[in-house]
Amino acid sequence: MKTVNIGLIGLGTVGGGVVGILQDHQEDFQRHYALDLRLARVADRNTARFTQLGLDPAICTDDAFALISDPDVDVVIELIGGTGVAKDVVAAALEAGKRVVTANKALMASSGHTLLKAAEDRGVELRFEASVGGGIPIIEPLKHALTANKITRVLGIVNGTTNYMLTHMSERGLSYDDALAEAQAKGYAEADPSADVDGADAAAKIAILASIAFHSTVTIDQVHTEGIRNLSATDVAYAATMGYTVKLLAIAQLTDEGIDIRVHPTMIPAGHQLSSVKGVYNAIYVTGDAVGDTMFFGEGAGAGAAASAVVGDVIEAARALADNNTTLGCTCTDDLPIRPITELETCYYLRMIVDDKSGVLAKMTEVFAAHDVSLDSIMQQGVAHDGTAEIIYVTHRAREEAIRRVLAELEGLDVVTEIAALIRVEAL
Amino acid sequence: MKTVNIGLIGLGTVGGGVVGILQDHQEDFQRHYALDLRLARVADRNTARFTQLGLDPAICTDDAFALISDPDVDVVIELIGGTGVAKDVVAAALEAGKRVVTANKALMASSGHTLLKAAEDRGVELRFEASVGGGIPIIEPLKHALTANKITRVLGIVNGTTNYMLTHMSERGLSYDDALAEAQAKGYAEADPSADVDGADAAAKIAILASIAFHSTVTIDQVHTEGIRNLSATDVAYAATMGYTVKLLAIAQLTDEGIDIRVHPTMIPAGHQLSSVKGVYNAIYVTGDAVGDTMFFGEGAGAGAAASAVVGDVIEAARALADNNTTLGCTCTDDLPIRPITELETCYYLRMIVDDKSGVLAKMTEVFAAHDVSLDSIMQQGVAHDGTAEIIYVTHRAREEAIRRVLAELEGLDVVTEIAALIRVEAL
Fold first, then answer.
1. Does the beta-carbon distance from A21 to B291 stay under 8 Å?
2. pLDDT average, residue stretch B105-128
3. For the segment A154-191, what is each residue's pLDDT rounded down to a tens digit?
4. How far apart are CA A20 and CA B148, in angstroms?
5. What is the 3-state secondary structure of B350-406?
6. B329 has pLDDT over 90
7. Per-residue pLDDT at A382
């Protein structure tokens, strides 16, 4: 039996979940893995949480760095979040030779490479399974079980908040505002929902996944990111009539010109496995040259799910410590370029408000043709009181660059009142 | 760079896939993992395969044991299959101190415990990711990423052949015989389809998964197994009208009375994630106390998928060898009883052919009541030319034991011509 002392920094929702698992399953871990995982120190600035969780005052501190410098602590769990003090804490813990486990996607998506290098230099491990997909095992399968493959694509629904909103916009016709209000009332969205609805959360996660899958460092600022704030119920409804579901997809693809990486609302075929991922669930689709398509599905958030991943990482770190094993270093051995979004080639759904005059359609279609963008379908909706009509185009595969030129030119036409929506369509 | 010499025994479809990956990705593995994986020896009784695969005659032998005793071979891959010579080969390789990778579900589901113990005693590793779910990472997540959980249930579609047949029985109304003929024509079913259609393949896989998930050895002979041979298109069609899909599920649940483990055709809600798993795809649903529900989906068979898992295991074994790491031993530390099928409590779909006389329904309903089996729904279908009618019952949750007594009594009634179907219904 090996005793491993854990220092836990950050007692929020996930931290509370971690405390619960360590308490409830201590005997199981002893019996199954010959590991005695002890919560040796906890740190939080909000000291009221110590008593709320019934923790022994002797192990509690409001100073994260005191915890890190405690020679008894073997594994440090960082659950502060963000890229400020959390970064200093992780760096200091690694420097002190501790194994570190974090759930911090923003940190890993911005400074992951530097921190992983620091861990490798010190011969310790930095684990971050909880940073993507809550409790869904996805980092570990990419780093281990799927290594025989050249991974060519990773994509998925990695933000539960927006998936909850999109599910209810789609199934109940809710507007964006109503869906957001409902998500906030249920505790799925924060008071300031920006990180979720504007796509930064998903962008961080796909940057992390791409880095591992393609063995090349990708940071959050390299991800072309569009959220769902401007998505209207109208387009969600049109998508359904055309056999599509709208999802906020995070997509990373390996192309001959580099890594194509982006987050945006996406129309996918209603029959695709990802279409049936509803509510706050997450699912990540991984395509490899040998394995074909695989999918990993589960709760993307919540205290239990995230704590499951955190404690799973702690057990791995503890096993390595018990066996004196060398741990897996960074495998970002390649240095691939990021393909600019303008070079993207996909299909596009465009909704425009136009004056209902004869010859409008012909005039617009000419613009598409002039830029070599061919059309898959055109749908004209009834005329409104103000004499405008709605026209929906779905293009065949086209370059984003060409689409942007088409839109600029269409906007210049006096018959075009508004370009109301552009949504990318992926056949998957 | 660490050179690791691989000995591959068995050059069938999966073996050919393994050769392909090792050849195509040798440089990738060198760059990403600092591992030079060399195919040092291959063995097959069918020596024609050596030239078919373009292998250097100098590394080929028809004697598996010669390969094993070669001191240069570090990792042995066993792809012979079955429980005969494969068992001797794996045992001998472990005894010789080799790391062993196998895709052999029948072997692992019958002698896994003994072989894992032998590996542990010798301080080497026996890996078997490919034995369940083809290329889907499932063994490794259960052994690593999900260890923080008490796993309470593992269930899924783990046989691609029968799922292909059921998909087409459901979507196109094919009979069992036609679905089988089509699966055989497409190469998804063997000339002798018994192992697939009678459930033994699925039983082996769920025995392996249950052993890992519940930390308790379960062997294939402990799995209550019913295949799809007697499943009629009639019941598949009725299931659809009632909002269910019929799948061959492999189910393992932890109960207070022990492990409930079984393979049988099962009606599941049409809206459930598993319902949309079609064709030869596999999906495994894992429920843990912290993580909630997770699902792992992908191609359950095929050379590429299985080879992906095999080579993934080889890379893990090679990493451990390169780093001189201790490998994970058997964690079957518990010794849980298997709950007899008669103690199962679930819902049941029953279809009966009866004489269309007045009072029949009342007489039959009395039998259910006498054994405390309450009914969720009753559906009577039109009368046939011969004066018989079809009655379908779906029960509330009931004990299998009680259902069996009900059936025995119903069979004794002279108005009951035939008990045409019993299918268990799981709400999931």
1. no
2. 96
3. 999 999 999 999 999 999 999 999 999 999 999 999 99
4. 11
5. EEEEEECCCCHHHHHHHHHHHCCCCEEEEEEECCCCCCEEEEEEEECCEEHHHHHHH
6. no
7. 78
Cβ neighbours of A297 in B, within 8 Å: 273, 294-297
Q: What's the mean pLDDT when you consider all of chain B? A: 96
Residue B67 is inside which H or E element, if any?
A: helix B64-69
What average pLDDT does the segment B107-120 reach?
96
Structure token pair of residue A327:
């741990």
Tell me which residues of A are annotated as active site: 205
Low-confidence ranges of chain A (pLDDT < 50): none
d(CA A291, CA A278): 26
| Rounded Cα gap, residues B245 and B267, in angstroms | 5
3-class secondary structure per residue, chain A: CEEEEEEEECCCHHHHHHHHHHHHCHHHHHHHHCEEEEEEEEECCCCHHHHHCCCCHHHEECCHHHHHCCCCCCEEEECCCCCCHHHHHHHHHHHCCCEEEECCHHHHHHHHHHHHHHHHHHCCCEECHHHCCCCCCCHHHHHCCCCCCCEEEEEEECCHHHHHHHHHHHHHCCCHHHHHHHHHHCCCCCCCCHHHHCCHHHHHHHHHHHHHHHCECCCHHHCEECCCCCCCHHHHHHHHHCCEEEEEEEEEEEECCEEEEEEEEEEEECCCHHHHCCCCEEEEEEEECCCEEEEEEEECCCHHHHHHHHHHHHHHHHHHHHCCCCCCCCCCCECCCECCHHHCEEEEEEEEEEECCCCHHHHHHHHHHHCCCCEEEEEEEEECCCCEEEEEEEECCEEHHHHHHHHHHHHHCCCEEEEEEEEEECCC
Q: What is the pLDDT of residue A27?
A: 97
Q: Residue B242, class by beta-carbon neighbours within 10 Å (0-12 exposed, 13-18 middle, 19+ buried)?
A: middle
- What are the CA-CA distances from residue A35 to residues A31, A100, A345 (Å)? 8, 17, 51
Q: State which residue of chain B sits closest to A149, comparing Cα positions.
A: B308
Average of pLDDT values for B241-248?
A: 97
Name residues whose C-beta falls within 8 Å of residue B166's C-beta, 6 or more positions apart in sequence: B179, B228, B231, B236, B246, B247, B248, B265
What's the pTM value of the predicted model, to 2 decimals? 0.96
Per-residue confidence at B82, pLDDT binned at 50, 70, 90? very high
Tell me which residue in A288, A297, A310 faces B308 most closely, judged by beta carbons: A288
Q: Report chain B residues whose CB lies below 8 A from the CB of A145.
A: 129, 137, 140-141, 309, 312
pLDDT at B330 over 80: no
User: What pLDDT was estimated at residue A222?
Assistant: 98
Q: Give residue B247's Cα distance to chain centre.
A: 13
Task: Look at residue B358 in the predicted model and tell me its pLDDT.
Answer: 81
* Sign, Cα dihedral of A230, A236, A239, A245: positive
User: Any idea which residue has 């906030």 for tokens?
Assistant: A184
- Looking at residue B129, what is its pLDDT? 97
The mean per-residue pLDDT over the stretch B149-154 comes to 98
CA distance A122 to chain B (A): 16
Q: What is the pLDDT of residue A328?
A: 78
User: What pLDDT, on the 0 to 100 scale, is given for residue B327?
Assistant: 79
Q: How confident is the model at residue B242 (pLDDT cuts 50, 70, 90)?
A: very high
- Which listed residue (B87, B98, B205, B247) is catalytic? B205
- For B400-409, the pLDDT digits (tens) are 999 999 999 9
Q: Give me the total of CB pairs closer than 8 Å, taking one residue from chain A and one from chain B.
A: 188
Q: pLDDT at position A267, please?
A: 98
Sheet of strand B35-43: strand arrangement: B60-61, B35-43, B2-9, B75-78, B99-102, B126-127
- Asked if the Cβ–Cβ distance from A323 to B319 is below 8 Å, we say no
Nearest CA of chain B to the CA of A119: how many Å?
Answer: 16
Q: Which residue of A has its CA nearest to B332?
A: A32
